[in-house]
Amino acid sequence: MQINSADATIALGDNDTVIITSPSGKANHWIEVWERDPGDLEVAFIVPGKRRGRFEQLLIGSATEEDAVAREAVRLVCNLVEEHTVLAWDRRLLRGGRQFIDADKLSSRVRQNLSWVVSWRGTYSSDAPAV
Q1: How are strands ordered across the β-sheet holding 97-102?
Q2: Which of 2, 42, 93, 108 is the most buried (most CB within 10 A)?
Q3: Residue-wise over 28-43: b if at least 16 C-beta within 10 A, else e?
Q4: pTM beyond cutoff 0.90
């Protein structure tokens, strides 16, 4: 099964994994969503070419909270595809690592601490800080 839109192609992969890809041939990244346990969903933003190229967000809930966890996963995916949220790598020692950041908070001051930023359509993507 596959759904196409202007912003993404959604397909059902192996083991009921949902795979979201950009319809643009330029984007070399994708999102995968799958259920790890009842109530637990994992959303992974895969960015080939970046160190540790699989960036995961685990959304945890009990079996009775599956609907709320699913809504949160859909919200994260929509925010990534609509570029309200971007993936960035913070180079600082104590606060560093993978960060999902609201795009409207990407000031030049914030970017100084980032090694790179990836957004779905590339609007906010960069490999160097903007200074």
Answers
A1: 97-102, 85-90, 114-118
A2: 42
A3: ebbbbbbbeeebbbbb
A4: no
- For tokens 């799958």, name the residue: 34
Q: What is the pLDDT of residues 13-37, one digit of tens each?
A: 888 899 999 876 666 899 999 988 8
Q: Where does the chain show beta strands of DSSP type E? A: 2-4, 9-12, 18-21, 30-37, 40-46, 54-59, 85-90, 97-102, 114-118
Tokens representing 56? 């995961």
| Tokens found for residue 35 | 């259920």
**What 3-state DSSP class applies to 17?**
coil
